[in-house]
Every structure is written in C-alpha cells, then in structure tokens.
Amino acid sequence: EAISSAAHAKLAEALPKELSSTAWAFAKLAIEDAPLLHAIAGVVMDKIAECDAQSLANVLWAFGTLVVQPGAALEVFLPAISAKLHTFDAQELANTVWAMARLGHIDKPLCDDIAARCMFRLPDFVSQNLTNTAWAFASMGFRYKPLMDALSAAAVHYQGQLIPQEISNLTWSCAKIGLLDEDFLQIISGRAINIIGEFDTQALSNTAWACATLLFEHRGLLDAISAQSQQTMPRFERQELSNTAWAFSKLQGPDRQLASALSAEVQSRLDLFDPQALANLADSMVDLSEGLLVRLEPAIQEFVAGMPTSLTAWRGNAFDEVLRRIGVDNFGIAGSQMLMAEMGIAEPPPAFIQRAQTRTQQACDEGDFRKENFGLIHKRVLCYGEWEVVMADGELVRGSALRENGIRVGHAAPPAWLRSFATPINTQIGRDLCGEFQLVTAIGLVLDCAPPGLTGKVDLFSSSTPCCSCLAVLRQLQLRFQGVMVSFANGERYT
Fold it and tell me: How far apart are the C-alpha atoms of 107 and 332, rounded to whole Å?
C-alpha cells in the first residue's frame, strides 16, 4: 500500500520502462490494485510515443494477469503495439497475445500480424512462449494451423523440459482448434506419463478432456491420468470432476477404480454442482443419472418457463437474460430429452429415424471438406428433416432437407421470425452456424411460402445433442407454425 501510494504521487514523472515495471511487479505479486493500474495506463497513454515493445507488452501483460479491463487505454495500446510489432521479441509477442486472450479482446487484424510475427520469431521461443501462444490463439478461437503445426513441432524439441501446465495447455489448444497430430500427441504423452505425479487437478482434467475431444486414445496416458486422479480426487474442482467423467466416458470408459472414486466424490457434492455440470455428469455417470437429473430439473423448468410465448417477444432480450441466469450451453442427452418433453416435442417415428441415420451417414461418407482441405478435425453435426403438411385448400406438401454445421457456400439468411442466441459459456460460437439452426432455416423458408393455416408435421433429426440456442429455435418453429406438430430425434441416443 505504501509503494502504491508513493507510486501514484510520482507517476507523471516516471519513464515508460518504470511505469511498465511497476505494473508488471504488482501483477507478478498478484496484487490487484486496479486504481494504480489505470493510473499507470493513463500516463502510458500520454507517453505512448516513448514506449518500446517491452513497456507495451508488460503493461498489457499486467492487465491480463490480473484480469483488469484497461478500458479506453486499449484503444491506444493496440495501435501502438501494431505499429511497433516488428520490434517485439518472442517473450513480448507471447505475453501480448496471451494478455489479449485473458482480457477476452479479439482484434483479428492484430492477431493475424502477431501470428505471422511469431512464425518469424519461432526459433527464439522457449517452451513457455510456445505453450502460452498456442493457448492464447486457441482460446480466442483462431485456427492458425500453420502456426500450430510450427508451435507443436518446436515444442517437441523441449519435450524433456515441458512442465504439466505446458503439456495440458498444448493438448487443450490442439483439441480446441481440432488439430489431431498423432505423432506430436504420442511424444508429449510419453513426457506426461513420466511426470504425471506433478500434474495438478486442472492439468489432469484438461489433458483428459483434450484426448477425448480429439478421440486420441493413448492407453498408457489414460491409465496414468486415472491413477493420479484417484489420488487427488478430493482436490478436484466441480468442473474438473465433470470434465474428467465426460472424457473417460467418451473414450473407453473409466476403469472400475476411477469410476468408483468419481462416483463417491460426485455423491458427496451433489448439492454443489451447477446445471451445466449436472447435465454433463448425468450423461457420463449412468449409475447416478437419476439423482443428477432430479437436481437438474429446476433449471430445465426455468428454461422452458423463460421462453417467450410469441415470435415478437423472441426479438427482445428477455431470453438472453434467461440463458445468462441458468448458465448452460447444453443440457446433455438426458437433460435435453426431459426438456423437449416439457416443450411438447415428441420422438419421431422409428422409420424416420432410420432414414435420417442413413442419409446423415451418407453425407459423412462423402467426405469432410474441412479436414481434407485444412487438416483440422471438427465436430460434424448432420441434421435431417422431413415435412408433411396440408395447406388450407387441402393440398399436401412433402419435402426433406439435410444441413451440416459450419459455414457453407450458399448459406441462406434465416426467416425474419427466427434468431439464434449466444450461449453463456462458449460465447464466441456463432449459433446461427449450428446444423439445427440451418435446417430450421431451410424448412422455415419453404413453409413460409404457404398461406396461413398449415397443419401436419415436421420431423427433425440431429446427429448431436442440440445446444440451448437450438432448443430455442425449435420453440420458435412451434410458434411460427402452430398447426404443425414438431418432433425431434437426438442421434446421440442411438449410438
């Protein structure tokens, strides 16, 4: 406090390096003195022309470390960083992009330039620079495959020096952008096994999650994670328990000892889990599913009750607040089934489900454009729908459509009455790219051409569990065509 008070009095006469060093020191000591940071930022703004790369990077790093938003200062810092980027060394590049990720500030042109500069400076990167840069770009949603290939290749040279956090950050980053480099993963798996005793619960959970997301099954690594997790289970955070249970269920399933340890720990904390964790655990821990769903039910009822009852009301912000309050991206397989029952959405006939499975499998067999052209894997969600409706004059109209998640050529604008919503956890994902949203768009555009008074049915199938935004899309479809019965099949229930 004494140093902070004295610093405030002398900021105006301090040099940029002294200002940045002061901010760096407070952040390094985890002292969150926001008034001092903002005061430093204000003086730095006045002296921005005198700031070198180290001063700029250190000030931004301090804000990122303490997660204190710089406010208007960022509008001055980032252009200055861009102008002097050619002078940044490896540490300064890594710290800058890491701080931007921590602050949740995405500046694509600047990130593009930083990525290019990182490639140039890569020989100077040490292991921490490599892992922090990979984590930063992945967490901001950038899929710079050439850079990630280069970072992972460089990390191999440091494999004997990688610490647990660096290993988990690298594997998490690969999973986040869909980079399945089995040779690289095999190499760092060996390093992880050798030092598994040093892994904390977050590193264990994140590494397991990454392996499951990439469907990378390394028996030795999973056995090591299982054994270490059992020893440290009481120290796991709730989200870490949920992620670990999900990861092992996604792969070969937990061994008996891990399953028992997870079950005991989850049961001891049943009343502490948030709705998202309850939804994940209900799918991955079958023996506890019933009790978990009972605890999830209030969130499901609140979600359904919070849905607007008219299409006009869907255009407002009320449902955004419902999503924020409940804090769920996806209610899981079992939870979504309960929720759709509350919405009056039934299961479609078995014959339709069989047709949908056949059609979506055909689409998968035809190839994966993103993997074949960009070398990245991603979760493909194939959605199929059929409609059979009768117009007011008695004419019968039938049709079908198939859509896949992601950006597609000829991406159609949705009907005016349909909207998607940002989900509260993965806020950066554009939910208008969900396969379910695109399928309802296609169907809605067709049915909108008919005069009012349609009756009949729309059967829908998705190869994956719908997110909360897509559940809202189903409700909007119900409201738009109130004489049409909507049914939905979740393909994950049949695999």
Answer: 33
Neighbours of 77 (CB within 10 A): 23
Alpha-carbon distance of 449 to 433, in angstroms, equals 23
Burial of 67 (0-12, 13-18, 19+ CB in 10 A): exposed
Encode the chain (495 residues) as per-residue pLDDT tens digits. Answer: 777 887 777 888 899 999 999 999 999 999 999 999 999 999 999 999 999 999 999 999 999 999 999 999 999 999 999 999 999 999 999 999 999 999 999 999 999 999 999 999 999 999 999 999 999 999 998 888 899 999 999 999 998 999 999 999 999 999 998 888 889 999 999 999 999 999 999 999 999 999 999 999 999 999 999 999 999 999 999 999 999 999 999 887 778 899 999 999 999 999 899 999 999 999 999 899 999 999 999 999 999 999 999 999 999 999 999 999 999 999 999 999 999 999 999 999 999 999 999 999 999 888 776 665 555 666 789 999 999 999 999 999 999 999 998 876 567 799 999 999 999 998 888 899 999 999 999 999 999 999 999 999 999 999 999 999 999 999 999 999 999 999 999 999 987
Which strands make up the sheet holding 455-462, listed edge to edge?
396-404, 382-390, 455-462, 484-490
- Tell me how far CA of residue 150 lies from CA of 93, 120, 130, 144, 214, in angstroms: 15, 11, 9, 10, 19
Residue 21: count of CB within 10 angstroms of its CB = 17
CB 279, CB 328: distance < 8 Å? yes
CA distance linking residue 427 with residue 429, whole number of Å: 6
Bridge partners of residue 461, in order along the sequence: 384, 489
Q: What letters, b where the CB count within 10 A reaches 16 and e where it falls short, cover 419-455?
A: bbbbbbeeeebebbbbbbbbbbbbbbeebeebeeebe
Can you tell me the distance from the alpha carbon of 306 to that of 396, in angstroms, rounded to the nearest whole number? 35
pTM of the model: 0.85
